[in-house]
Amino acid sequence: MMRLDKFLKVSRLVKRRTLAKEVCDQGRVLVDGKPAKAGTNISVGDELTIRFGQKIVTVRIEKIVENAKKDEAGLMYTLLREEKLQSDSDVLSF
User: Fold this and answer.
1) Does some domain include residue 93?
2) pLDDT per residue over 39-73, tens digit each?
């Protein structure tokens, strides 16, 4: 298990851990369909849905590693969906 904010940083889904914490605390990350805070423990098989501005990315956690090199980071998750939001009303429904 690993904290959600640390996973986002180590997997390079988010560049910095402080930014990962902010994204979580703003309610822009779901773990298995439920809103998650930065300290939420995640494990292999969990599905993360993250809203980045006008884009929603859904990934499945494949592997948890404490420290990952750049080329290993992409192996930590599988991209399931990537959706572009069309309007502000789409953003509010997340």
Assistant:
1) no
2) 999 999 999 999 998 999 999 999 999 999 999 99
C-beta atoms surrounding 53 within 10 Å? 9
CA distances from 77 to 59, 74, 88, 92 (A): 6, 6, 28, 27
Location of structure tokens 């560049």: 15
Find the domain containing 41 and state its range. Answer: 2-87
**What pTM was estimated for this model as a whole?**
0.88
Asked if residue 43 lies in contact with residue 32, where contact means CB atoms within 8 angstroms, the answer is no
Question: Does the residue 94 lie in any domain?
Answer: no
Q: What do you get for the CA distance between the two ends of the chain, in Å?
A: 26
The answer to whether 51 and 94 are in contact (CB under 8 A) is yes
Answer yes or no: is 92 within a domain: no
